[in-house]
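=== RUN LOG ===
request id: a7f3
mode: sequence -> structure
chains: 1
length: 126
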Amino acid sequence: MNNPVIIGLLAWIFPGAGHIAQRRIGRGAVLGGAIWLMFLIGVLTGGAYYPGFEFKDGQLLVILNIFAKLGNGLGTVIGFLASVQPDPNVAARATFEYSGRLIEAAGLLNYLAIIDALDIYFGRKK
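=== RESULT ===
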């Protein structure tokens, strides 16, 4: 793959794909697997419905929450679809708030994976 924009977009939309496109299959599988596993555990344990923060809680927290969730790429759409029809008892789960943070952590980790894929492309990392 010879286009850094496509590599960056692939890495964002589908975690690990930016590395796989550059024939770094092992690294892409480990990063993608870890990010998707964190995201899926978060969604399955009720984190997709966790509302996060509102503007009354502080604008910086809202921006960080949105930024972190958008880092999941395709997972952002999956998380949104999972939160449309939530289980009525989802907020009673002990994992409810932790799951929301797990989804955010997966998004932030994906940003690091995107940077890593681009660093490999530009030759700053092997």
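=== NOTES ===
The two ends are 16 Å apart (CA to CA).
Residues 4-121 form one domain.
=== END ===
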